[in-house]
Amino acid sequence: MSKKKQKSIEELLEEALVPEEEQPYSLPENWVWVRLKSINKDKKRGSSPNFVI
Questions:
Q1: Residue 51 in this model has a pLDDT that exceeds 80
Q2: What is the total count of domains within the chain?
Q3: At residue 4, does pLDDT exceed 70?
Q4: Residues with Cβ within 8 Å of residue 17, at least 6 apart in sequence
Q5: Which residues, 6+ apart, have CB-to-CB distance to 39 below 8 Å?
Q6: Residue 17 β-bridge partners
Q7: Reduced to 3 states, what is the DSSP secondary structure of residue 44?
Q8: Is residue 30 part of a domain?
Q9: Which among 1, 30, 32, 47 has most CB atoms closer than 10 A?
Q10: How many Cβ atoms sit within 10 Å of the Cβ of residue 24?
């Protein structure tokens, strides 16, 4: 069995941040541009929880 190598925090951050030249406009000082896919990895489209009443 092969295991996927887990990425370091630095690698994940580098993937998530949008490079300065790709940022459409500046943000407040304590905000950053991130790629949506980096914060939405575990979400499944169209799924909803099943409730039993």
A1: no
A2: 1
A3: yes
A4: 32, 33, 34, 35
A5: 16
A6: 34
A7: coil
A8: yes
A9: 32
A10: 7
Backbone φ, ψ for residue 11 (5° rounding)? -65, -45
Residue 18 is assigned to a structural domain of this protein? yes
Helix (H), strand (E) at residue 39: helix 36-39
Its domain, for residue 27, covers 10-39
Beta partners for residue 34, in sequence order: 17
Taking the C-alpha atoms of residue 50 and residue 32, their distance in angstroms, rounded to an integer, is 35
Answer yes or no: is 4 within a domain.
no
Query: Is the whole model's pTM more than 0.90, yes or no?
Result: no
Using CA atoms, how far apart are residues 53 and 42, in angstroms rounded to an integer?
Answer: 27
Question: pLDDT tens digits for 17-50?
Answer: 999 999 999 999 999 999 888 776 666 666 666 6
Asked if residue 44 belongs to a domain, the reply is no
